[in-house]
Each structure stands twice: as C-alpha cells, then as structure tokens.
Amino acid sequence: MSSNSLVSISDISRDEILDLLDRARYFEENPNSKILDGRVVATLFFEPSTRTRLSFETAVNRLGGRVIGFSDANSTSTSKGETLKDTIKMVANYVDLIVMRHYLEGAARYATEVTDVPIINAGDGANQHPSQTMLDLYSIYKTQGTLNDLTITMVGDLKYGRTVHSLLMAMQYFNPTFNFIASKELQMPEEYKQFCREKGIRFTESADFSEEVINSSDIIYMTRVQRERFTDIMEYERVKNLYTLHNSMLDNSKPTLKILHPLPRVNEIDRDVDDNPKAYYFEQARNGLFARQAIITRALGIDPRK
Amino acid sequence: MSNDKKELAVAALRNGTVIDRIPSSALFQAVRLLGLEKSNCHVTIGNNLRSEKLGTKGIIKIADTEFPETVLNRIAIIAPCAVVNTIRDFEVVEKRPVRLPDTISGIVKCDNPKCISNNEPMKTKFEVIEHDPVVIRCHYCNHTVAGKDAQIL
Predict the structure, then answer these.
(1) A2: in domain
(2) B116–A85: do the CB atoms touch at under 8 Å?
C-alpha cells in the first residue's frame, strides 16, 4: 500500500490540502511541462465517466507523461469474471500510478491494499470522489482568496450528493458556516449534521431557498435534484422548481459571491445565470485540470515547485 | 427444592467457559460466532433467563474448552455487556467483560449490496466508531450499521 494514494478527502490533513491547493495554483500558472517524462499512468474506468477521465488524461499529457487504460469495463477481462484484485495487480506491473473509477463502493480502498503502486480514486459508486472535492476547494480558494470563515450555501440534493458531503468534510479545518437548503426528502443526512456539531461548525437548515440566505452567502453550491431519488413522484413535481436559481435572485447578493455546480446541470440553474460574472461553474470544471495535476504529482512524489 | 431445580437448569461446570449476560435476542448469533454449531464439546445453552440488568438474558456453557480472547471478543459486537467466566475445577478463576476490538475482520457482512466486499472474494473489515451502543463502519464503503443489526458471516 502506498501512502501517496488518495482514496478519500478525509485521508488527508489540513496541511496536505493546502499543499495540494498550492500545487494547483502552480499548475494554473505552468500547465505544460515535462515533469512526468518517462512516467506511465493507468486510467482504469470500470464505469464510464468521460468528463473525469478526459480531465485526468489531459493532466498527465500536459505534464509529459503517458496514459494507458480503458474507459469501459465491458472491453476488459472484468467482463470475463476477473477479480478487481487480479486486474489491479496485473496493471500495477506496467505503470507508476493508477487512476481508477469503479461502480462498486470501496473499490479504490481495496485496490490500495493489493498493490504498492499509488491509487487515485476517481469515484467509487456513491462513496468518494476526492479530486472533485479538490477542484471545488481550489475554486473556492481562488475566487475568495481564502478558505477561512466563508458562508457556503448548499442547495438541492443534499442526501445523496457525495460532492456536498465531501466538501463539508474538507471544509472542517476552515471555520465555515453552512446553509443546507433542500426539500424534506433530500435533507443533509444526520451523520453530517452531527459531524458539524462535533466540530463546532455552524449551520442552518431550511426548505426555503430565500433571498436572505442567498444574500448572506460567499459560495452557493448547487446540485442536481434527480427524479429517481424520490419515492413520491408528486413530491418531486412539487419541489423540482423550488431549487432553481434565476438571475433575478442574485440582485442583492454579495459582489464576491460565486455559484458552483459539479455539472452536469439540468434545470437547477437557469440559463439566464450563465452570463452573470457570479456564475463560476464552467471555470470550476477547468480548475479540475489543475487540481488533478496537483493530485497526480503528489501521488508520484514529484514536487513541481522545486 | 425450587432452588435445586434452578441449579439443575444451569448445572455447574468442572472445567470450561461460561458466557453470561448475553441479550436473549443475540444468543444464537453468539453461538454461531463461537462456532459451537460444529463443536463436539458438551455445550449447555440457556435463554430467556431472568436478568436484573437485561430483563432476560442468555447463557452459554462450554465444557472443557477455553477460547482465545480474540475469539471471545467477537461476541462484543452483538453482546457488548457479556461476561466471560473461566472455570477450573469448579472454581471461577477469571471473570471479565468482553472487549470490543477497534477493528473487526472477516466476521460481519456489509449490508450495502454495492460494497466491494460483497462483490469480490475478500475479507470484510469494519471499524468500531461507537462502543455503547455499538456502531461499526465498513472500512471499504463507509456504510455504518448498529452492532445489534450486524449480519454475522
């Protein structure tokens, strides 16, 4: 098992998070180099995710490394019944680093136990997706100039949304205030609210996406409300538009407010917000490249700043 | 006379192990956890006995057998208050509560069907995050489950 692996954001300390953000900042200024010259990285996508895979592969290519891998498990020995352990041990013979996405939860953690090659978790089912969290943190850091003392409003599906859960865990070190805005069916789970209480993190909870909440926010983190999450379809029809952000709702918001969304969006952010300078979701996705360059170099024990 | 009958129900052991204060609902799980279904030893199992602390309780007596501590501590997942008595020559030579380990390997099945541990030939692993009442968390998928609801493999 390699200590440079990144399976969950909760595996790394405050200092390591800050180090990754500083690396990301460096890569934003210097996106292209040859520091991965001679290195081979595997991207093993047992479940398709075009956006995440392209982002990781671009990150490696821009640093001069080579990529091998697959984008769909149907074309691999997994479809012949090979165990994950055997696939990982086989690939580990060829590469310096494995980036993996898997539909089963805990797959990346298990992979770290069967090989010494570092593993980066690019999503394991509904469980963890730490590179998304790092790009969210970098987006917040970049737009606000700090991670400390911010008011972050999370809106939409707070029950199943792994991005909001991981962001909440990662922000524990930075004295945040959270507003959790969701319908009754999709509220923030009790375990995360308990986590906030234990860590002394302030939070409010409401079903009402009010102007007051919007105007107090430094960051609004929107998420997609998915129809299939509802047991009662009438409830979905009732709430689906309650959590849509329109440009007019931002009239009295803070000048420094930024709107984040992990994408893809459906209708939770109206298209009329896109041209507002407070809309940040497309740049946010671009930051994923730098955050992933930071994670990859950390995993390989390479410091680009030296 | 009535006292005699009571004693008969839980006859004394010359040598062996008595596990007391098992919640009635967990008794047969405890029997399984210790592998007693396949044991050839003289085993006495009592259940729904009166208990001041638990209301009703179960008790297991295993003659001529002493278990390693790690085996006995498995019971703590489902019966955190259980007490183990070691008997030698009719005397209780040791009496101690079971102690829940920090990690539990290969005993509990994760209840998340999408967990890697339910889809790959591998050992399960749980971390104990609360001791009273017991709550354990899957090392792989992070799902939590109460000790009393844990599915024993």
Answers:
(1) no
(2) no
ipTM: 0.88
Q: Which residue has the tokens 């983190």?
A: A221
Range of the domain at A231: 131-285
Residues A146-163 have pLDDT tens digits of 999 999 999 999 998 889
Summarised one tens digit per residue, pLDDT across range B59-116 is 999 999 999 988 888 899 999 999 999 999 999 999 999 999 899 999 899 999 999 9
Domains of chain B by start residue, with CATH: 2-97 (3.30.70.140), 103-152 (2.30.30.20)
CATH of the domain at A47: 3.40.50.1370
- Candidates B142, B143, B144, B145: best to mutate against A (most CBs of A within 10 A) is B142
Q: Which residues of B touch A125 (CB under 8 A)?
A: 114, 141
Give yes or no: residues A200 and A273 share one domain. yes
For residue A60, the tally of other CB atoms under 10 A from its CB is 22
Q: Do A150 and A174 reside in the same domain of the chain?
A: yes
Considering Cα of A47, then A48, then A54, then A55, what sign does the dihedral take? negative
Give the torsion through C-alpha atoms of A102, A56, A73, A110, to 10 deg.
-30
Q: Per the domain annotation, does A41 fall within a domain?
A: yes
The pLDDT tens digits of the residues spanning B15-70 come to 999 999 999 999 999 998 898 989 898 999 999 999 888 899 999 999 999 999 88
User: Is the same domain home to A94 and A190?
Assistant: no
Inspect the interface and report whether the beta carbons of A105 and B114 lie closer than 8 Å. yes
Same domain, A149 and A258: yes
Q: How many CB atoms lie within 10 A of CB B52?
A: 6
In B65-141, beta strands by DSSP E: 83-88, 91-97, 103-105, 108-109, 125-131, 134-138
Q: Are residues A82 and A106 in the same domain?
A: yes
B144 touching A (Cβ < 8 Å): yes
CB atoms within 10 A of CB A97: 25
